[in-house]
User: Fold Hexosaminidase D from Drosophila kikkawai.
Amino acid sequence: MHSNLWIFIWRRKLSFLLVVSGLVLLGLWTWAILIDTTAPQPPGALSSTERLQQQQQQATGYQQVHIIQKLIAQANRVLRAERLRDNAVEKAPSPVQRLGNVRFLRPTQAKKAPLPMSESYLFEQERLKILEQQQRQRNAGMEELNNAEDERMLSSAERQTQYEHELQRMGVPVVAGIGPDGPRAPAERLVHIDLKGAPPKISFLKQLLPMLRALGATGLLIEYEDMFPYSGALQPLAAHNAYKEEELRDFLECAALHGLSVMPLVQTFGHMEFVLKLSGFEQLRELTESPQSICPSQPQSMALLEQMLTQVIELHLQCLGHATQTSAAPSAPIRFTHIHIGCDEVQRMGECSVCRQRLRSELFLSHVVSLAHFIRRQWPQLGVVIWDDQLRSMSLSELQHSQVGSYVEPMVWVYASDIYHFIQPQLWDTYAKVFPSAWAASAFKGAFGESLLVPPLQHHLENNIRWLAVIAKEGGRFAKGLRGLALTGWQRYDHFAVLCELLPVGIPSLMTSLSTVAKGYFSTNPRDNELLRVLQCIFQPDSRRSGRPWLELHPNAHHSQLFAVCSYPGHMVFKYALRLFDKLAEIRIYLEKTRDQSAWLSDYNVRHNFSSPLRVRELTVRTPVLIEELRAMAREAQQLLWEVYDEYTVTEFVEQHIYPTIAALQRQLAIGETLLQRRTWPQRPLPLALKLQEDMGLVTNQQEQQQ
Assistant:
C-alpha cells in the first residue's frame, strides 16, 4: 500500500511541487497583508517615506497574486496533460494483453466498469435532431413574436397590404376590402347537402357534423328529392334506396346535438323530374314530353305539392320536441325556422293550353304565393325561402303587385367569380324594395362542370370570398339585412344527370370555404385558422414570412398538396380521386397520341385495314397494362366508397368514370388485333371507302367520265 502511494507521488512530483509552491506563496502574501492591516497607524499624517514604502508593498502584493494565478493555471494544464497521458496508457495494450488467451487476474473491489468512449456518442444524431428542432421552434416563436410586434406597429392599410401579399403567395384569391379589418361574417352559414339519387350513409354524415360546427357552420340546407321516406299515396316518390324514417330522425337529432339548424328543401315547380317521370303523375307535366316542370294550372298539382310539403314539414316538426303516437320526443330539439320550396330553373312554363293564357311572371308569382300562403296558414312559425333566378327578369311593379315580398325570402345564387355580372346593383335595389330580407348562395362543389371528378377549390374559394364582399356592400339595402350564406354542393345538375364530384372529394373545398365564410376572411395564419386542426392534417407550418406557405393553390387549381396529409372522414376517397384523376388524364393523352396523332392507328388505317404490324405492336403494347390498372382501381373504388355510399352509388361511379376508359382501351386493342391479322396488303393507291364516298358526296374520275 505504501509503495503504491510513493509511486503515485513520484509520478506526479512536478504537479505536487507546483501546488506546494503556490500554497507557500499564497500563505506569504496573506501574512504580508495581515501584518500591513494590523500595524498601528500614527495619529498624524504619513510621511512621504512611509507612503512610498506602502505603495511598494501593494505593488509587491499585486505581483505575487499575478504569479500565483499563473502558477495555478500552469498546474491545471499539467494536471490535464497528466490525465490525458494516463488515459492513453490505459488504452494501449500491455505486453500481458498481447499474450492472447492468457489472462492474469488479481482481486479488486467491485467497481462499476466505465463506459467505452464510443458509447458516449450513442443516439448522437437523434440528440442533434432534437436540439435542432428545439432551436427551430425557438426561432419560429421569436419570428412569430416579431411578426406580431411588426403587425401591431403597422397601420390598417399596411396590414391589409401585407395580408393581400400573403394571399398571393398562397394562391388564395384577393378581393378588395376583405381581410382581418374588413366586414363581419354573415350571421347564418348553411351547408347544402344534396341527396339526389346518391345518399351518403347516415353514419358518414354524422361524422361530418362536428367538423362543420367547429369550422363555423350554423345550419344545414338538406335537399331530399327522392331520398325522403314518403309514405301513403306518395310512397312511389321515394327511391328504393331512400332513407328510412328512423335513420333520418336519428340524423336530425344528431344535428341538433351539435347546435345546427335544419332547412329542408322541397322542389315545387321546376326540377320535378323525380315525381313527373313516374306513371300516374305524368298528367301533371307542363308539357307531355318533358317531366321537368309541373303545371300550376291543374288543381291536382297543388294537392300533390301540399301533401309533399306536409310530410316533410311534419317529420321535422316531430324532431323539434313534440312526441307523436309512433315516436317519443327527441333527446335534443332542432332549430327549424325556414323551409325552402325551390322554384329555380323552371324551364317549361306557360306552354300548356291553359297556362298560355297568362303571363309567365304572373304564373310564377301566383304559384309561389299560393304555396307560401298554404305553409303560413298551416305552420305560421315557418319562413319560406325560394331561389331567385326566376325573379331576375321581372319588373319592380310586377313583384310589388303580387305581394310576394310578404310571403317569401329570395335566396340569391351565383357560383361564378363575377357576381355583379349576374346580379347588377339595380337588381339588388329592386330586391331590397320588395323583400325585407334575403339570403345568398355560393358553392363548394358541383358548379363548374356536370361530371367533374375533383372540384376546383380555388374557383370555389374565390366565389365565397367575393360573396363576403357583396354581402357587406348590399346587405344594408334590406330592412332586415341579408340573413346569411348557403354553401351549396350539388350532387347532380338534375335528376337525369350523372354524378358531380362526390361529397368526400369535396370536403377540402367545403371546409376551406366554410372556415373563410365563418371568419369573414381567409386567415393566413395557420394557428388562427382551424382548418389544419379540424381536418387532422399532419403538417408543421413554417411561421416565417420568408418560409413556404402552409397552403399552396398555384400548381393545381383543383386541390392543394396539404390535404393529402390529412385524415378527416372520407380522406381516403379524396386521395383516391386525385390518383384516378391523374391516371385518367394519362390514359387520355395515351389514346389521343396513338389514335389521333400516330400514322399507324388512325381512322384511315382502320377503315382500309392498312398498317405496319411492327408499329401497331409498339403503339398497343401498354394497352393491356393500362386496362389492368384501371380494373384494379375499380376494385379499390368499391372498397373505399362502400364506407360512404351504398352499392348503387358505388356502381354508378365506376360505370361513369372508369368503365368508359376501359372500353376505349379495349376498342383500341381490338383494332390493333384486327390490323395484325393481315399478312398481305394491296398496291397503292388505296380505293376510296364507299361509305365515306356516299356520306361526303364525293365523285371519282370514273364516275365523272360516265356522266
